[in-house]
Amino acid sequence: MPGVFGLELSSVLLLLIVTLCVILLVRSWLEVPQNIPPFPVRPLPIVGHIPHMVDPRRKLMEWRKTTGDLFSVYFGSTLVVVISSYDLLRETLVKQGEYFSHRHVGGILPVLNKPEGIVGSSGEVWKEHRILTLNLLRSFGMGKHEMAENIIEEVSAYLSEISKVSGEPLDPKDLTSRSASNVICRFLIGKRFEYDDPAYARLVEIYENFVDLAKSSGLLHWFPNLKYLPGDLFFHKKLINNFAEFTEFSRKRIQDVINNENQDCKEENFIASYLKEMKKREASGKLTHLSTDNLNLCMSDLLSAGTDTTTTTLLWFYLYMVHYPNVQDKVGPALNYK
C-alpha cells in the first residue's frame, strides 16, 4: 500500500520506530539522574559501564583513585553504587543498615521466578526466615559438639572412599561435593546418603550443572529480556529446567514429612522443625511468611550455598597442599594433634 512520499506504510512505521528508539537512547544518555554519587565516566546507552569491565577489580580500583570512595556505575540499566572505604561501609551497612538491608531484585533470581526463600527475599520475609534458620541451626548444634560429631562421621566416610583408589590419580571434585552436600542434608532432612545412591548423585550433578549454567548466562543478570530471543542462546530454558529439578528434591522430602513417610530419618531436622513452627504461628493467628513454598526455596538455598562454599574451599586447600609440600608437612601433625 502506498504511503508517505511513495514509501510503503510498513517502511514508514519501521522508520518511525527506529527514529523513536534513537531519540530515547540519546535522551537516556544525556539525562543524568540527580542526587546520586558521580560517575567515573559517562555510561553508554543500553550497556552502561559494562564495556569497561574486562577486568572489573582493576577498573573499580582505578576509578576509586580518580572518583573517590563513593561513585556510581550502570550495569545495563541497573544503577550500582560502589562503596570503597571501611568508614563508608560501616556507616551504610551497620549504622544505617535498616535502610540498606533490602536485596536488589535483579540478577538471575527474576529469571528463575524466585523472589523469596532466604537468598531471594528482602524485608520481613527475609528477616523472619533468617531468624528462624539461625535459631534452628543453633538448636541442631551449630558450632557445638553435636554438629562436630556429624561432620567427623562424614569425614570418615569421605576418607574411606578416597582410600579405595589405592594411590591412583583422583579428581576429588565430585566426591568432595557429595560429602559437603551430605553434611547439609543431615541438617535438612535428618539423614546422610551413600555416595553411590543414584538419586543423590543426580542431585549433586544437577547442582553442579546449575552453577556452570549460571556462569555461562551472565548477560541475563543485567539484560533479563534476552531470555525472549529465539532459541536458548543464554541458557534460560536450561536454567529453569535445572532449577525445577533441583527444587523437586526438596519438595519430595517436605511431602514425605507431611505424609509421615520419613521414617528412616530418626534425627530432628530442618523440615520437621520448620513445619512445626509454621503450624504454631498459623494457629496463634500471627502474620507469618512461613510456607511450604518458602521452605522449599530455603532448603535449596541452604543446600546450594553450603555445598559450593565448602567444596570450593577444600579444593583450593588441596591445590595449595600439593604445590606447597613443606606446608603440608606442618599441617598434618597439627590436624592429628589431640
From TrEMBL:
SUPFAM superfamilies: Cytochrome P450. InterPro entries: Cyt_P450 (IPR001128), Cyt_P450_E_grp-I (IPR002401), Cyt_P450_sf (IPR036396), Cytochrome_P450_fam2 (IPR050182). One of its GO terms (molecular function) is iron ion binding. GO terms for biological process: organic acid metabolic process; xenobiotic metabolic process. It comes from the Eukaryota. The keyword Ion transport does not apply. Belongs to the cytochrome P450 family. It comes from Elysia crispata. The chain crosses the membrane at residues 12-30, 71-89. Keywords: Iron, Membrane, Metal-binding, Transmembrane, Transmembrane helix. This is Cytochrome P450. The keyword Membrane applies. PANTHER family: CYTOCHROME P450 508A4-RELATED, CYTOCHROME P450 FAMILY. The lineage of its organism: Eukaryota, Metazoa, Spiralia, Lophotrochozoa, Mollusca.
